[in-house]
Amino acid sequence: MRGAVAATTCEAVVTPARVYAPQLVALATSAVVLAWLFHATRLDLRLATPWYDPAQHAFPWRYAWITKFFIHRYLKVLHISGGIAMWLLALRASRAQDGFLATHRRRLWCVAISFVAVPVTIAVLHRLSAMHCPWDVADFGGGAPYFDLLSPAPDGIRAGHCFPAAFVSSGSWMLAFAWLFYPERPRLSVAIGIAAFTWAFGLGWVQQMRGAHFLSHTLWSLWVSWSVVLLVHFACGAWHERNTSDSAALTPC
């Protein structure tokens, strides 16, 4: 009885403010840091330079089989397959009466919807962006000037449609898995979030090697992805879904 009362007490303090306020502060802070860092420095260009071969006037990794086909094409198929599997799992959870699927129904829907919402959001931003890919920038053999998010697009230059990094979104929707065991197992949630972030960042780094994106494109894509995941998590009402079977794992109030 005492354990049940303690669990109920802990559940009572799980509010939207407690769940999302730290996340919103982190997003706001990181947005300021990212905007300032890539506006005040030439970090994007410096990190892209080692991957460019002036003698060939090209990024050697651009057409390499492992980067262009295995990672950029076949891994994307794997990500899509995983997303479809999550939709099937979420649909099954909608009919489940007990067990993991029943107790994690809203969280599973958060992951499934993020699989669609994250790439679609980034695709729209990508289409509206004037910024260019490294291989189109004058510093790397292209014809367009480099400019960052805070700089106005130069007159007379066609839109580059290369920001934020679209390929990153094929894996960054998996950041939603970080919420699957929250709040009962916060450490596991953090570990999953770090793993998903690292995976998605790795996808962006491969694109940087190919000359397809700058580092800022990748980081902003991750920023947008997490923002969308938070919005989906809230919209699904997953923040108040409690798994009573794991109540003993809750951090004490």
Helices, by number, come to 9
| Helix-strand sequence | HHHHHHHHH
Strand content: under 5%
Broad structural category: mainly alpha
How many DSSP E strands?
Answer: 0
State the helicity in percent bands.
55-70%
Biggest sheet layout? none
End-to-end gap: 17 Å
Mean pLDDT rating: 91
The rough form would be described as: elongated
* Gyration radius, in Å: 21 Å
Ranges where pLDDT stays below 50 over 5 or more residues in a row are 1-12, 247-253
Description:
The chain has 253 residues and is mainly α. The protein has a domain of 146 residues. Helix content is 59%, strand content 0%. Helix 2 runs antiparallel to helix 9 and helix 4 packs across helix 6. The two termini are 17 Å apart.
Summarize it.
This protein is mainly α.
What topology does this entry show?
Layout lengths: L1 H11 L3 H25 L2 H6 L16 H29 L5 H5 L1 H24 L40 H4 L13 H25 L4 H21 L18
Characteristic key phrases:
disordered C terminus, mainly alpha
